[in-house]
Amino acid sequence: MDFLQDNLIWAALAAVSGGWLLFDFIRNQGNKSLLSPIEATLLINREEAVVVDVRDQGEYSQGHIPNARHLPLSELARRSNELEKFKERPIILCCASGARSASAIGTLKKAGFEKLYNLRGGLFEWEKAGQPISRKRK
């Protein structure tokens, strides 16, 4: 008990962070379209998933997932036919944080795509996980 009193701040911090992790786990439990960077890599390697980056040109130029196709969210509805040949393959959408790519999933569902996934945390989490980044232009 003396330990807890002496380290109350650290104990509270541990409890709050543990609670947040549990909350995040429960919140995302039903959403099977969210992929971690490792899950995305496995899907790319095992099922030849196509990565579509929906960020703006400037963001894409600063770095992207190797071999990612670039279709900015603002142009996705108009240019979704460019992905038609990949309709049977899994498509992983990514952006900086995962918010725009979540919106892109809705756009592509309306266009008839079914195997759609969102890179959880976007490029931020991808880089944090130590995954490769390319700066090559396509």
From TrEMBL:
<dbReference type="InterPro" id="IPR001763">
    <property type="entry name" value="Rhodanese-like_dom"/>
</dbReference>
<feature type="transmembrane region" description="Helical">
    <location>
        <begin position="7"/>
        <end position="26"/>
    </location>
</feature>
<feature type="domain" description="Rhodanese">
    <location>
        <begin position="45"/>
        <end position="135"/>
    </location>
</feature>
<dbReference type="InterPro" id="IPR050229">
    <property type="entry name" value="GlpE_sulfurtransferase"/>
</dbReference>
<keyword id="KW-0812">Transmembrane</keyword>
<protein>
    <submittedName>
        <fullName>Rhodanese-like domain-containing protein</fullName>
    </submittedName>
</protein>
<dbReference type="InterPro" id="IPR036873">
    <property type="entry name" value="Rhodanese-like_dom_sf"/>
</dbReference>
<dbReference type="Pfam" id="PF00581">
    <property type="entry name" value="Rhodanese"/>
</dbReference>
<keyword id="KW-0472">Membrane</keyword>
<keyword id="KW-1133">Transmembrane helix</keyword>
